Amino acid sequence: MADVTADVIAIIAKKVPQERRGAINPGDKLQDLGIESIDALEMIFDIEEKFGVQVPYNANSATSEFSTVTDVVTAVQKLVDEKASTAGAAE
Amino acid sequence: MNWPHRVVVTGLGVVSPVGIGAGDYWNSLKEGRNGIALPSAALPALNPKQPVGEVRDFDPLRWFGERELVAIDRVAQFAVVAAREAVAQSGILLEGALSERTAAIVGTGVGGALTMDEAYRRVYFEKAARVHPLTIPRLMPNAPASQVSMHLGVRGPSFGIVSACSSATHAIGLAFQMVRAGIADAAIAGGSEACLNFGTMKGWEALRIMAPDTCRPFSRDRKGLIVGEGAAIAVLETAESARARGAEILGEIIGFGMTADAADLTNPDVGGMTRAIRSCLEDAAITPDDVDYINAHGTGTLANDATETAALKAALGVRAAKVPASSTKSMVGHALGAAGALELVATLMAIRDGVAPPTVSYLGPDPACDLDYVPNEARAMPIRTALSNSFAFGGLNAVLAARRFA
Questions:
Q1: Do B192 and B134 touch, CB atoms closer than 8 A?
Q2: pLDDT band at residue A58 using 50, 70 and 90 as cut-offs
Q3: H or E stretch covering B303
Q4: Domains of chain A, residue spans
Q5: Are B376 and B358 in contact (CB under 8 A)?
Q6: B376 near B359, Cβ under 8 Å?
Q7: Partner-chain contact A61 B209, CB within 8 Å
């Protein structure tokens, strides 16, 4: 199955100040990367558009769900894998 | 400051998810009746799993002729229906010189959303060559104000007000200032919203702040807001003219405060909210100890309710813990540009009846929201003076103060 890490980090990087873009690590907290509420919304939007998935995300309960870069990568990987297996089952 | 006039309310009109008519609306709020539900069959384009605050059983043909309806979007229909009720209750005769000295100021957050949605659907989706010729006058955000002016015969200063979720409070506040200052003798003011359409709701979905279950302001486990619709209109006039007509005075508007955060686009700001509340108290020449009840903005989002709680504490000091502050959005959802007017009606009725309406669907305290929110059941209590808060996206805050007329 395709690894989404690089793509997700590239999407996150677009919301991060220029000087930090080259040094995003999986353990980084989104908040420490300067990603605020509207950046997070855009990030989710970009992810959904890129991978053709629907990310269950409510800004009212999201603070813990997507704390670090890894949290986002893991969630997206899961959705992409689910989508692949559903598509496979349909064939 | 010595203003020429005291400003009283002599008529109220409401179109809401819990009743058409101010009396039905208020009785529902007192009973804690929740109007939030999954969309009805009248809204087939909406996500069937997302609850909304829908005005059901609104038959336009009961209120308008078939020819009239061609020119008037649902948002303006609501405004006119509420305005007719308010003017009828007031007994004010909008004729001759008085009609020229009366203002019609009606706020809306979105405007003619259904008309816009329908027009875009035709051209983008059906590839139609043209849209309905009255598309523009139906969708313009001043249409509710213009239609109220035309249907009620208001010939004085009239315009729409747009400040998202604060629109109606700004509209009533401005009307209050005009009547108080003698710029207008009377005003038909309030707000209207009708944007439960596919395109607008897609936009709300994308903001990721709608609750999947219901609206639980200030409660633990609250999951966001519920988009609603409706309208409310008040007739404001000078105390002298109301007395001279022998009109029943439903309450007095005594102060209005408005501020801007100049900060985040969507995140609320405790400083901006606090300044709006303080500025309203100052305008009303009252102190925190005078405030008996607050109709809170209370949207049910994590951010608003915690920030509003902090602002109430900052503005009212120790008094904040003693003043019941409830959110009637828990029963009707967030009717955006109509919300402030619906809530001012609730505030005036609360004063009149001595009943604080409840915050329903309340599950228990959240550490960030530790005031008295009148959970789940209305409370009989003496209320002389009350505030109504509205805080909008874009950082635009507006607060009204009302008092029992004596």
A1: no
A2: confident
A3: helix B302-316
A4: 5-90
A5: yes
A6: yes
A7: no
Distance (Å, rounded) from C-alpha B157 to C-alpha B53? 32
Tokens 């709608």 found at = B210
* Phi-psi label, residue B326: left if phi above 0, alpha if psi -120 to 50, beta otherwise: beta
d(C-alpha B118, C-alpha B299), whole Å: 29
Beta strands in B19-152 (DSSP E): 19-20, 102-107
For residue A84, the tally of other CB atoms under 10 A from its CB is 12
Indicate the number of domains in chain B.
2
The residues of B assigned a catalytic role are: 165, 297, 334
In the prediction, which pLDDT does A64 show? 61
Q: Are residue B85 and residue B216 in the same domain, yes or no?
A: yes
Q: What is the pLDDT of residues B132-144, one digit of tens each?
A: 999 999 999 999 9
CATH superfamily of A5-90: ACP-like (1.10.1200.10)
- ipTM for this model: 0.80
For residue B271, pLDDT over 70 is answered with yes
Whether residue B169 is found in the same domain as residue B199: yes
Please report whether residue B1 resides in a domain. Answer: no
pLDDT of B85-119, one tens digit each?
Answer: 999 999 999 999 999 999 999 999 999 999 999 99
- Shortest Cα–Cα distance, B404 to chain A (Å): 37
A38–B224: do the CB atoms touch at under 8 Å? no
> A45 to chain B: which residues are within 8 Å by CB?
206
Residues B152 and B125 in one domain: yes
> What is the number of helices (H) and of strands (E) in chain B?
15, 13
Is B267 within 8 Å of A45 when comparing Cβ atoms?
Answer: no
Backbone angles phi, psi at B16, to 5 degrees: -145, 165
Residues B274, B241 share a domain: no
Return the CATH number at B347.
Answer: 3.40.47.10
- Which of these three, B196, B212, B245, is where a domain ends? B245
A44 Cβ under 8 Å from any chain B Cβ = yes
Q: What residues are paired with B252 via a beta bridge?
A: B8, B403
> Are residues B331 and B230 part of one domain?
no
Contact B217/A at CB under 8 A: no
Indicate the residue among B196, B225, B245 that finishes a domain: B245
Residue B374, domain extent: 253-403
Residue A61's closest chain B neighbor by CA? B223
